[in-house]
Description:
two-stranded antiparallel ribbon, alpha+beta, 9 helices, about 270 residues, six-stranded mixed β-sheet
Amino acid sequence: SPYTVLLNSDVLVPENWLDPIITMMDNNPNIGIVQPIIMSLEDRQSYEYAGAAGGFIDRFGYPFCRGRIFDRVEKENSSYKTDKEIFWASGAAMVIRTKLFSTLGGFDNSFFAHQEEIDLCWRAKKAGYQVWVCSASKVFHLGGGTLDYGTPKKTYYNFRNNLFMLTKNEHFSTLLWLLPVKLVLDGIAAIKFLLAGNLQHIVSILKAHLAFYVNLPTIIENNNRDNQSIAKARIGPDNSNKSRYNGSIVFDYYVRGLKTFNKIMN
Length: 266
């Protein structure tokens, strides 16, 4: 098949959900990856945490979605019912060109359960492909089926894999300032957990940073391998600055009080 469907076992799909996605990809060869709009299976009027109406990241590598900022999930919003180029598609339900998936080497096995789809989409965008959300397709995700939300283990993978992803995909000149800033921001997150009495999550953040340093040689090795795969898959100039937010989602959410996607990226 020219297309490969990646679908979690905790996703309910309605009949013919793939048709508009395939049509979109057939009509534009520059589109490498597409996700449907992802709604909550438990509350079908709300977007689901893992992807919502399309994924983005800010300049510090924090992921967020149309319809979900951090843990705040929005109700269905008519302004999100449009096709849109995004930065990353949810691994819960996505369609990718089979040749692209194969050439890029698929998911990076050093990740697990978190942000490996962002890494994959980032590599596709570096090869010149676009990532889109198809508004005519909608699925329902239970969420937390692989790893429960709010657990220390989830915190560990979120923080560790975010460092993995940034180190693999950002330019070296950017990493020189970004990694020290991430240390500070992750420290602030640890203080937030401390004030909430979630000591296990603080330990998870410390373990995540330790795992990052231990695995740094492997990350660099994987990056060199990925660069070769990206060169083989290339169809155009690097597209990774497209649909990326140049501000700070942390600052916008906690300082400016902007809690929804439309207020941040309008």
